[in-house]
Structure formats: C-alpha cells, structure tokens
Amino acid sequence: KNGDHQFQVIRARYIILLLFYTGLRITEAAEHHMGNFIQREGNWFLRVVGKGKKLREIPVPDELLKALAEFRLKVDLPSHQPRFREKTPLIPMQNLKQSINTRRIDQILKWAFNLGANKLELTQPRKASKLRSASAHWLRHSYVTCLLDSGAPLKVAQENAGHIDIGTTMHYRHITQTDRHIATRQ
Questions:
Q1: What is the reported pTM?
Q2: Are 5 and 102 in contact, with CB atoms under 8 Å apart?
Q3: For position 171, what pLDDT does the model report?
Q4: Strand partners, 55
Q5: Most buried pick, 90, 130, 132, 142, via CB within 10 A?
Q6: DSSP letters along 67-84, please?
Q7: Residue 127 in 3-state DSSP?
Q8: pLDDT digits over 59-111, tens only?
Q9: Bridge partners, 118 (sequence order)
C-alpha cells in the first residue's frame, strides 16, 4: 500500500506542474500521450489538439522537463525523456497503460491542494482557503497570468493557451495592485 501512496504523491506533483507549466485544459491532459512531447532543434514542445480540433505546440520550459524526467524515473518508465510516438498516457493510471479521466484528475488535484492547505491552515489561513478552492482551471489561469506578468506578448499567451479569441486572453491581464497604486498617486 505504501508504494501506491508514493505513486499517488509523485503523480499528483507531476499533474500540478504539467498543468501549471503548459496551461492545458483538463480534457487535453486526459486525452494526450507522452509521445505528444516533441523535440525540434533542441527545444521541447507539447503538441496538443484542443478545443475546436485546433492543433497547437506549447513550448516546454526546463522546470517541466525536469519534473517529467523525475516522474518517469520514479514510475519506472524506460527513459527519462518521452520516446518518439510513445503511447504512455500523459497522465497514466498506476499500470502506466491507461489514462485517467478528467474526473479522476480533478479528484487528485483536490486531494493534493487539500494536503497543502492543511499545512498552511495555522500559519496562513487565507492561503489555505484559496488553495482549497484551486482546480485544473485555476492552474490554467495561473499559467496565462504568469506568462503575461513575465512580459510575454499577448499573442504568445493566446497561442500557448489555445484561445481562439484574443479577448479571452486579455481577461487574464492583471495590473498589480502596486502598479495601480503608483499610477493613481502620480
């Protein structure tokens, strides 16, 4: 049973990082395979078919490559990087052959976020409360927000997120409170 729990923890961490560093929709995470990671000119991308059967290639940052390699190593997949056209589900069941469904991904995230919230409860109750309401969509939202906050062009955020309408991406633009405060004072 301890091996099961260890797998659950390792997979939960990987799911959180996968969704945060790619901005995938929960359905996209459930429907794709490790073989959707592709390498071109030394750069890794995650090739997904999203809403409206729209194909997009999401640049994969080093942090995610590291998390992916750790996950693959800990669950005994044959290589630390995905192989060409590898059929292992992007988020596999413990048997590594079948993918888990969106409902199960959601349950895993709730479980993991609750574990985190429990640790923060006494020292940071507000953060704990926020974490308890976190979801796959919250991770997607965080991805787009972080991209824009770090200076990525709106068009890059739109393409990475697979938004058909730029207006959808623009909803994620947040002017930080400090910036607003400074601008208002001036």
A1: 0.89
A2: no
A3: 80
A4: 49
A5: 90
A6: HHHHHHHHTT-S-SSPPT
A7: helix
A8: 999 999 999 999 999 999 999 999 999 999 999 999 999 999 999 999 999 99
A9: none
